[in-house]
Amino acid sequence: MYKNICYFIIAYLCLGVSLSNAESQLNEPKKDLELIQGYFKQRFPDIAFAEFANGVYALDMTARENWEALEEFPPYEMHIDSGQILWQEYASTYETCFPEGPGIKHLYPLWNDELQTVITIPYAINLCRKQANLEEYDYLSTEMNSLVAFIANESRGNLINVQVSNDSALKAYQAGKKFYFTRRGQLNFACFHCHFDNAGKKLRTESLGPALGQTTGWPTYRNKWGALGPLHKRYIGCNKQVRAAPLAAQSETYRNLEYFHTHMNNGLPINGPSVRR
Amino acid sequence: MKNLILLFSLVSILLVPLQSLSIENNNKKLHDHISSLEERINGAAKQQALWRDTEKLLLEAEKQLAKNNLVHSQELIDQVEFQLKQSLQQSLNQHDIDKLVPYYLKH
Questions:
Q1: B100 CA to chain A: closest CA distance, Å?
Q2: Alpha-carbon dihedral of residues A59, A161, A30, A171, nearest 10 degrees?
Q3: Residue A240 to residue B104, Cβ atoms within 8 A
Q4: Within 13 Å of residue A277, how many CA atoms lie on the same side as its CB?
Q5: More reliable by pLDDT, A213 or A5
Q6: CB–CB of A245 and B45 under 8 A?
Q7: Less Cβ around it within 10 Å: N or C end of chain A?
Q8: What pLDDT is attached to residue A24?
Q9: How far is CA A52 from the centre of its chain?
């Protein structure tokens, strides 16, 4: 009898320790969120939190003037219209996959337990099209970007709310985090070197944007591209700029990166599509 | 004197095929080296450790080899070797996430 009670106590303690361990591990994204947002709030105390959604234009007032002028006749506007047409063309298909309608960008990327992978909006669109036996879009194509532009526009103002809900999701989040902080390429730079330590400083003629708020406005019409493009195209560009070999758009690594990158923006409003230099 | 000239001509005639044989040998060696580098580049790409220009350099080395520019091809191969070594070293040194995150983001 005494022996049984001892076993019970040991088992109870073990369970308690493992549960609290799992819980504390799942707290990692929450702690990261506090530390990252706290860092930028402390570094730029005069900037209102929601302003970070405007990226570098929250910090560089000269660039902001140009940007505001561009926003008066936004070059992405026609893409929203063509995206709406594309949505309506297969509305019943998309409504089956996205029962809450197109205004859902603030909830993505999300972890899918069944597929054991991170699902971004473009990835979800292609999964949906595949299920309906429709041809999948190229991730860098105008059609895909226009459709995402429509979805982003419908989600405008919604606050980003990306969740890391279980251990598998946490692993993907941690993989994205590791990618973000890993030095790569001949220049030996990690993402955070430019967008944390040097945010707001000049790189040649351009100001470096803070990491906080970088995922709110996609897809973006970049003047450099002369076209609307997705976040993963920018990841490819960033990797090339530090002279590392880029990965494919919507590769698992980039989706994990987007998961971590977007999670740090929880609480900021979606303001895509947008225009950037 | 006549004999000397004859001997010299004979040696030259014999040397020509030997020389071309050594070029062919070098060519094959470089070919094999390029193939092994291709495999190593694929390995580095899988580890996401590849640099942007490494693959381009190897392609150029292959082109130069096809044109029989052995010296230039060897130089490019050396560059690829160097880049691969550096990039894999860079990746090996960064396994521990706790060491990558800056102090102000540590829990």
A1: 6
A2: -110
A3: no
A4: 17
A5: A213
A6: yes
A7: N
A8: 59
A9: 14
pLDDT value of residue B21: 56
Provide the 10 A C-beta neighbour count for residue A117. Answer: 17
Q: Give mean pLDDT, residues A97-120.
A: 95
| Residue A131 distance to chain B (closest CA, Å) | 29
Q: A274-276 and A220-222: which strand pairing?
A: parallel
Tell me the C-alpha distance between A87 and A77, whole Å: 16
pLDDT (tens digit per residue) in A141-178: 999 999 999 999 999 999 999 999 999 999 999 999 99
Distance of alpha carbon B97 from its chain centroid, rounded?
Answer: 33
ipTM greater than cut 0.90: no
- Whether A245 sits inside 8 A of B94 (CB atoms) is no
Give the Cβ contact number of residue B37 at 10 Å: 20
CA separation for the pair A5, A154 (Å, rounded): 59
Q: Give the pair of three-digit tokens for residue A56.
A: 């570098």
Nearest residue of B to residue A29 by CA position?
B107
Nearest to A182 among B45, B94, B102 (CB): B94
Mean pLDDT of A35-52: 93
